[in-house]
Design brief:
five-stranded parallel beta sheet, alpha/beta, elongated, OB fold (Dihydrolipoamide Acetyltransferase, E2P)
């Protein structure tokens, strides 16, 4: 019996994400959308968990770009990039190894992508790695945040991100917690998260981003909920169910 095709849809704009899923449902009823992601790191985690046969990836996403996620995909996943018009990217896609959908979504163009993917299902996708390398080479290298100006009482402190144990949302502010104290910055956690290196700073709850280097271990409470122990702080950080899979091997 042939395998039912599965897909991951990664798009940071919720309205566009829902629209794409709805159009895919109409154009390709057999396709089972197994997961949706709102940022690059979530897309990578869901991709590793579900191993979908097709990835619809927005190129510009918080955390990791669609190109960076695609570089981690196995040869069994076929790639469709979702993008605003970019001449360099579209020229590379037209070589045929990859496909793309322009925003705002055009039903006819999406139908063409669906037809192409159906033809390629079961094939190895030769040439994809070379096209990805060309696309990444033509994309400016992203710079992440290195230090933060934060208020601590009457003092404004300069804190490097290496010092930070975790960030936590606090109404209109974000708490910046280090081994020796904490401070406040007038910036939302979401805005801050977009500027942090996703390889080092992991969202573990909707209100918390932790420095992976600050984690000492993982514990479960009597209800089975996951919490993080920190190397230089006594408190433990709650991990939401959506992020527990990050720590299954620890």
């Amino acid at each position: 019996m042939p395998r039912v095709p599965t897909a991951l849809v990664a798009e940071d704009e919720s309205v566009l994400r829902e629209e794409l899923c709805a159009q895919l449902g109409a154009l390709w009823p057999e396709l089972r959308i197994v997961a949706c992601a709102a940022n690059g790191l979530e897309a990578l985690q869901l991709m590793e968990r579900h191993r979908p046969s097709v990835l619809f990836l927005d190129i510009q996403m918080p955390g990791l770009s669609g190109l960076e996620v695609a570089q981690q995909a196995g040869r069994g996943s076929h790639l469709v990039f979702v993008t605003a018009y970019d001449a360099h990217a579209v020229a590379a896609f037209e070589r045929g190894a990859l496909d793309y959908v322009l925003k705002p979504y055009d039903t006819a163009r999406l139908a063409l992508s669906v037809a192409r993917i159906k033809e390629r299902l079961g094939q190895q996708g030769d040439g994809v790695a070379a096209v990805l390398r060309a696309l990444v080479a033509g994309t400016p290298r992203r710079e992440y945040l290195h230090w933060i100006n934060a208020a601590s009482g009457q003092e404004v402190r300069l804190i490097t991100v290496d010092e930070v144990c975790y960030f936590q949302a606090d109404t209109k502010y974000t708490r910046v917690v280090t081994a020796v104290g904490e401070a406040l910055i007038r910036r939302s956690l979401r805005e801050l998260g977009d500027q942090l290196d996703p390889g080092r700073f992991w969202p573990v709850h909707r209100s918390t981003i932790v420095n992976a280097n600050a984690i000492a271990g993982v514990v479960r409470d009597f209800r089975g909920r996951v919490k993080l122990r920190l190397k230089q702080r006594s408190e433990q950080l709650a991990v939401s169910e959506a992020h527990e899979h990050l720590f299954r091997q620890m």
